[in-house]
Structure formats: C-alpha cells, structure tokens
C-alpha cells in the first residue's frame, strides 16, 4: 500500500519510460517528415485529436474506477479478516466451560486456536501473492498441524479444517455446548467466505483486450495529435506531446496496478501488515508478555 508520503520520481516514471520514448520517437519522425517532405504530410485538424482525446479520457476514467473498486474490495475483505479473527478467539475464550476442562487444558486450546488463526492470516496473504507460506507457519503451529498443512495444496483451507476439527472435539468433550458450536462454525464460515472472495479477485484477471485497446487508442490519439501540432507549433510540438503522453500513460498505469491488489507490489493491499496487527491483537487477548510491534516502513509503501 502506498503511504501518504512523497513518492520518488523514479517509481512514478520508470514504468512509463518505454512508452514516453516511443512517443518521442514518433514525434521526432514527424518533425523530420515535415522538414524533408512537408508537402506530403496530411493536414489533420486539431478537432479530430480533441474528439479522440475526450473519448479516451472517458475510457481511462472507467478503467480507473473499475480498478479502484477491485482494490477497495480487497481492502474490505481484509478488514473482515481482522474482525472475524478477533471474534473467533473471543468466542473460544468466553465459550470454554470450566467444568469440562482444567485451566491448563482450556489455555492450551485457546492458544492453539489463536496461534492457528494468526498462521491462517499470514498463509492467506502469502498464498494470494503466490509465495510459499510454510516458512511463516512453523513458529505458530504444532508439529501435527504443520505436517497436515504441508500435505495440503490450499494451506489456508487446511488450517480452517483444523479449526473445525478442534471445535468438534471440544463439543464432544462438552467444553462447548451445541449453540456455541454453531456460533463458532458461523465464524469459520465467514472466514471461508472471505478467503473465497480474495481468491476470486486474485484468479479473475481484468480483461487484457480492454487494456490493449486503451493502450492502442492512446497511441492513435498521440499520433493524430502530433500530426495536428507539427504544422502549428514546430519543434515545440515535441515537449507538448511528451507532456500530454506522460499524463495519459500515468493514468493508464495507475489503473493497471490497482487491478490486482495481491500482486506483491507497492500498490498491494498491505496483507502482511494487517496479519501482524491480527497477531498483536490475538497475543494481547492471550495476555502474552512479548507482543511484536506493528510493521513500519522506511520506504514509500507498506506491504
């Protein structure tokens, strides 16, 4: 997630530099054609370029709007992850029946659920980014849980299955009653739905043909604008065209990076930082003395 700080110039322009160089090359070619073959260049009215620019602006506005909707949905999903993670541990802590379990057993069960939920948050975020979550899970899971997760392809789903098994065992031991089991299962269902929503965003790509069409139309507009300005502005057409091109390509690239909020990029939803906040909250609920600090960043983004 980009932070509210001054963005470095290299980050803003490095992605559009190839496009800007191509536009500059096109502009220089038209300048040379005007100089050597001025009578053969077509006279294109500026109104045509204006109409094209207005149409492309509408397409870019739609593109940015849809891309931001995807990014914002990803952020809302992880807000639900935080809420349901806290809810699950609070429910287990309040539901466990003291007459069915000793204080030590109740503490072990609560700790197992809390640590497994912390592991679930980290594993979900890393899985969405295409990373291997297993190295992050070793410090949160018991050996049997770790071995079970290792054998599964979908590690976050495996951890939810372990949650479900433990809740069923607590119900069989009468450590939670039937109504409490239903409440815990409802929380697990919400966590599973949240995971599915995040996976849907990750697996559903923004239509590539739409992106290519917008990219082509930008070049068509800039070429038309260059032919329209080359007669009236002379050499000044080059910097003017580059300035306009920079604006259009920056907007297009901004939309492209917002389309995937789980791409391990600075524009991502900060799933690692959110998972760390969940870890802090749940360890405080366990009243543990050593609670990690929230993630901070010395750069312009937070992952």
Q: Can you walk me through this structure?
A:
By secondary structure, the protein is mostly helical. About 75% of the residues lie in helices and about 0% in strands. It contains 11 helices and no strands. Helix 2 runs antiparallel to helix 10 and helix 4 packs antiparallel against helix 7. The chain starts with 8 loop residues before the first helix and ends in an 18-residue tail after the last helix. About 30% of the residues are buried.
Task: Describe how the helices and strands are arranged.
Elements: H1 9-13, H2 17-37, H3 46-95, H4 103-128, H5 134-137, H6 143-150, H7 155-172, H8 178-203, H9 208-233, H10 237-258, H11 271-285
Subcellular location: Cell membrane
Main location: membrane
Membrane topology: Multi-pass membrane protein
Q: What descriptive keywords fit this protein?
A:
single chain; 303 residues; mainly alpha; elongated; transmembrane helix; membrane; transmembrane
Radius of gyration: 27 Å
User: What is the averaged pLDDT score?
Assistant: 85
Spell the H/E element sequence: HHHHHHHHHHH
Structure annotation, total helices: 11
Contiguous low-pLDDT stretches (5 residues minimum) are none
What percent of residues adopt helix (DSSP H or I)?
Answer: over 70%
In percent, how much strand structure appears in the residues? under 5%
The tally of domains stands at: 1
Q: State the major sheet.
A: none
How would the global form be characterised? elongated
Helix vs. strand class: mainly alpha
Q: Count the E strands.
A: 0
The rounded distance between the terminal residues' Cα atoms is 6 Å
